[in-house]
Design brief:
With 185 residues, the protein is an alpha+beta fold. Helix content is 30%, strand content 28%.
Length: 185
């Protein structure tokens, strides 16, 4: 019996099959418009988030330095370089930086660390001011469990000190109370 030949099927590209294999110009334009819209909404929020984080970081650094000075004074940690122990530490706060300083008994004051307030590459700037000392260095002293402060031009006194960080329409505060409580708002 002769073998039956199967009919050959023709494979051809129809106009409709070509149309279904890619994106139309309208579909591409809609996708680009959606991406542009999402970018326009997200970019200002990212910039605001960056500014908030810069101010929060400086606020945390100030609070950490204050707590370190407080705990060092309470525990009578030795001065840097092995000098006698001291019960007095201070944090100097200016408009451009903060410094942790040990008040040593036999030597001059020793600066343990200094943190400048610097903005990121975004160019955001902010101010750091205290409510007690306008446009001067504020020194916050911790002696044992007591806190006091001194402006560059005044005597050392006891009282609440509020350090305000502001910039880009944002504000953060670090509050130091005479009993030694340090909190951020």
């Amino acid at each position: 019996m002769p073998k039956k030949k199967l009919p050959r099927t023709r494979i051809y590209n129809s106009v409709s099959s070509l149309r279904d294999t890619g994106f139309t110009l309208i579909e591409v334009m809609v996708a680009i418009a959606i991406i542009a819209l999402v970018g326009a909404v997200a970019l200002p929020n990212i910039r605001t988030f960056s500014s908030v984080q810069e101010i929060n970081i400086v606020s945390v650094q100030i609070a950490d330095n204050l707590r370190k000075a407080q705990s060092s004074a309470s525990s009578r940690i030795k001065c840097p370089e092995g000098d006698e122990s001291t019960d007095s530490w201070r944090v100097d706060i200016t408009g451009t930086s903060q410094s942790l300083i040990a008040k040593c008994k036999t030597l001059l004051d020793k600066t343990v660390n200094t943190f400048p307030y610097k903005a990121s590459s975004g160019g955001n700037t902010f101010q750091v001011v205290t409510d007690r000392c306008t446009n001067e260095t504020t020194s916050i002293y911790f002696t044992g469990s007591q806190m006091s402060y001194k402006c560059a031009s005044t005597a050392q006194v006891v009282g609440v000190v509020t350090i305000t960080l502001s910039g880009s329409g944002l504000t953060e505060k670090v509050i130091i109370e005479p009993g030694g409580t340090i909190r951020s708002e």
